[in-house]
């Protein structure tokens, strides 16, 4: 460790050891003594380390952090620090209504205020369940005190009658079995519960495994930290190491802005493609980047990530689960394979342990090539996203690698242009409207149709709903039509086989082009040119826009809570990270203020 700062530079000294103001020092100090901390722990020059605690009874995915934090504390104390556990607003993906996404910015906001306003020199970020990871990294970005993330780890593999059952994905399977009469309601429950056999977060490559892997890809976790399953002994051991390391990071003055550079984000986009990461990743990464003042947008995701091959064979896109990912080497093996193939753009960026990506992972390779493929033998050649634009929206993301062969054959093999299709728009205003109308024969939905979902973006359905991947009407399903093209201003959960165009920005409720689309319009989507347009004459569109304005804009449902209202007033677009729009003017605030 090369010490860059001394005791007198510790931020916490302003509270606990301020020679200019002994009275305030006494006042700040006395209440932290009242539960047993000693003056020695607070005043002798030990860094005060916050542990941002996202675990609670309300947050089962992250609850095991309550146990792991004991090892983090041991590490902090062993390295000469003092720890203070900091509660974080809970975000449980499967428990929060209407959506946990709404709470990402709330947890961000409150953690910024906490890290900034209290005597903390560094922080351990207890990440895990989907939105906890971006919320904590965003807060660390804004405050910019030394920070290291610690995953709670995925659950053990789920099993049912000899087959792996993965979080989330098993629910779709269970629905089919229930519909076919092969299981009853209790069987349904048993099957679904089998996918959650232990503490930890979702064991599939959903948003949680994606974001925890990307926290390591960014350099914000110790190498190898993301994939260790929650109950493994290594999880406790890396918790201890993480606690030790944050104390050194304080002395080295190694801050989020030193680690999460533009180069680190470019690496992370590549790694996201290689792991088959979630379409929620661009929203979260663009948000973290904005809070650091690092330029990053959806064009970068296409330019840097689209051609990167898929290496990780995890459900729902593949076969395996979290334990297999760990046994195959986790993120370091993926990064090592990418470096070996010359695909990682910046192997020399610094990471939380003070070493570079190449130092940490350059020699690592897959330890099970069924689960993590080498780049020479990938699962898919192009696993990233494309970024579409047109008169329907400025930006929307599509994961082209999930388009099935049968869908390609049906919609994309037009002899004139193999990657473009036209269709008739069927427009739904929110998920309730979809459920009402999708099976109504008078809608005349056929294979020529493109399904549109609007009113499902950050403002329209506060936080954005995961509803864009819509099923075809049941009468088409019975005919064997498994998917229709879907477009929308909401999000999509996990990886779905449906070829959806997601996160359309600006959303209808923000005056985006989708608001002007009418049922029956012809639309054209061109995956080569990355365009999506309604084929409506300009004068007609101008007339619709006038009418839309005159009628007071998009008719979104009422807010149900104060936060929903404030969120909608301040929130920005998905493609720009869905952050609170004026929050990114506050950067590096631990150094620039106080
Ligand atoms: Fe929490 Fe999936 S629901 S990680
Ligand atoms: Mg989700």
UniProtKB/TrEMBL annotation:
Q: One GO molecular-function annotation for this sequence?
A: metal ion binding
Q: Name one Pfam family in it.
A: ILV_EDD_C
Q: Where is the Dihydroxy-acid/6-phosphogluconate dehydratase C-terminal domain?
A: 370-577
The reply to whether tRNA processing figures as a keyword in the UniProt entry is no
InterPro entries in UniProt: DiOHA_6PGluconate_deHydtase_CS (IPR020558), ILV_EDD_C (IPR056740), ILV_EDD_N (IPR000581), Sugar_Degrad_Dehydratases (IPR052352)
Alphabetic keyword roster: Iron, Iron-sulfur, Metal-binding
Query: Where is the Dihydroxy-acid/6-phosphogluconate dehydratase N-terminal domain positioned along the sequence?
Result: 46-360
Q: Which domain of life is it from?
A: Bacteria
Q: Which NCBIfam families match?
A: PRK06131.1 (NF004784), PRK13017.1 (NF009560)
PANTHER family reported in the protein's UniProt record: HYPOTHETICAL DIHYDROXY-ACID DEHYDRATASE (EUROFUNG)-RELATED (PTHR43183:SF1), HYPOTHETICAL DIHYDROXYACID DEHYDRATASE (EUROFUNG)-RELATED (PTHR43183)
Instruction: Specify the protein name.
Output: Dihydroxy-acid dehydratase family protein
UniProt organism field: Roseobacter insulae
């Amino acid at each position: 460790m090369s010490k860059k700062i001394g005791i007198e530079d510790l931020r916490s000294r302003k509270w606990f050891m301020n020679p200019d103001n002994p009275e305030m020092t006494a006042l700040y100090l006395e209440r932290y003594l009242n539960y047993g901390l000693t003056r020695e722990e607070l005043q002798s020059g030990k860094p005060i380390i916050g542990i941002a605690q996202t675990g609670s009874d309300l947050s089962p995915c992250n609850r095991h952090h309550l146990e792991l934090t004991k090892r983090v504390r041991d590490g902090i104390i062993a390295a000469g620090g003092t720890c203070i556990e900091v509660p974080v607003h809970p975000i449980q993906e499967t428990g929060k209504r209407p959506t946990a996404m709404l709470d990402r910015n709330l947890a961000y906001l409150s953690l910024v205020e906490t890290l900034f306003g209290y005597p903390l020199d560094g922080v351990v970020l207890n990440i895990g369940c989907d939105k906890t990871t971006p919320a904590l990294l965003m807060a660390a970005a804004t405050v910019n005190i030394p920070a290291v993330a610690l995953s709670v780890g995925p659950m053990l593999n789920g099993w049912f009658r000899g087959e792996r059952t993965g979080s989330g994905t098993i629910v779709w399977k269970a629905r089919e079995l229930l519909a076919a009469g092969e299981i009853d309601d209790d069987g349904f429950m048993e099957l679904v519960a089998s996918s959650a056999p232990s503490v930890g977060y979702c064991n599939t490559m959903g948003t949680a495994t994606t974001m925890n892997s990307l926290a390591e890809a960014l350099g914000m976790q110790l190498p190898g930290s993301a994939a260790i399953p929650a109950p493994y002994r290594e999880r406790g051991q890396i918790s201890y190491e993480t606690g030790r390391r944050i104390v050194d990071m304080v002395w080295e003055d190694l801050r989020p802005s030193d680690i999460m550079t533009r180069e680190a984000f470019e690496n992370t986009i590549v790694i996201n493609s290689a792991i088959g990461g979630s379409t929620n990743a661009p929203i979260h990464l663009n948000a973290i980047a904005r809070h650091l003042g690092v330029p990053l947008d959806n064009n970068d995701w296409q330019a840097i990530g689209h051609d990167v091959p898929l290496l990780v064979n995890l459900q729902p896109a593949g076969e395996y689960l979290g334990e297999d990912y760990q046994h195959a080497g986790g993120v370091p093996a993926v990064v090592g394979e990418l470096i070996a193939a010359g695909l990682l753009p910046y192997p020399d960026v610094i990471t939380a342990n003070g070493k570079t990506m190449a130092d940490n992972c350059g020699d690592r390779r897959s330890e099970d090539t069924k689960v993590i493929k080498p780049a020479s033998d990938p699962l898919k050649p192009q696993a990233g996203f494309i970024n579409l634009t047109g008169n329907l929206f400025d930006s929307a993301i599509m994961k082209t690698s999930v388009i099935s062969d049968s869908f390609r054959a049906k919609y994309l093999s037009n002899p004139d242009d193999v990657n473009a299709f036209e269709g008739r728009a069927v427009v739904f205003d929110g998920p309730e409207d979809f459920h009402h109308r999708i099976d109504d024969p008078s809608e005349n939905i056929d294979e020529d149709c493109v399904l549109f979902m609007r009113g499902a973006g950050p403002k329209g359905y506060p936080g954005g709903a995961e509803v864009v991947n819509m099923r075809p009407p049941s009468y088409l399903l019975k005919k064997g039509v498994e998917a229709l093209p879907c477009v929308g201003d909401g999000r999509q959960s996990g990886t779905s086989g449906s070829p959806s165009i997601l996160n359309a920005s600006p959303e209808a409720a923000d005056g985006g082009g989708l608001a002007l689309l009418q049922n029956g319009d012809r639309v054209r989507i061109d995956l080569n040119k990355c365009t999506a347009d309604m084929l409506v004459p300009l004068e007609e569109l101008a007339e619709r826009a006038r009418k839309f304005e005159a009628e007071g804009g998009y008719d979104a449902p009422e807010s149900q809570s104060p936060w929903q209202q404030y969120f909608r007033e301040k929130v920005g677009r998905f493609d720009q990270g869905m952050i609170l729009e004026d929050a990114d003017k506050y950067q590096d605030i631990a150094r620039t203020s106080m």
